[in-house]
Specification:
Layout: H1 3-12, H2 16-19, E1 35-41, E2 45-53, E3 56-62, E4 77-82
Antiparallel strand pairs: 1-2, 2-3, 3-4
């Protein structure tokens, strides 16, 4: 599956012109792969965990947030892949 196929679900769920969310960008040469934890307020406040792989950010929603204690297990729900330029996105999505 190519990057465009991986981002099809992401783009289909958003009005990118209205929301201001990134539509997809390329990784700058020489940069290390991204690892991102973002606070996200949608239906409820939660954290999003993202790892760069295959040209996109593979994403999981973590409803109770990450734990500093490795013995504490937390649910992580897979969500659609996100474009690499979501790594630094901040904003209010209408």
């Amino acid at each position: 599956m190519g990057k465009n196929d991986a981002l099809r679900a992401y783009r289909s769920k958003r009005d990118l012109g209205r929301s201001g969310e990134p539509s997809g960008g390329r990784r700058l040469p020489g940069r290390r792969p991204a690892f991102v934890v973002q606070k996200h307020s949608a239906r409820s406040l939660h954290d999003d965990f993202r790892l760069e792989a295959d040209g996109v950010l593979k994403s999981w929603s973590v409803p109770k947030g990450p734990s500093a204690d490795p013995a504490v297990k937390r649910l992580a729900v897979p969500t659609e892949d996100h474009p690499l330029d979501c790594e630094n996105f901040e904003g209010v999505i209408p």
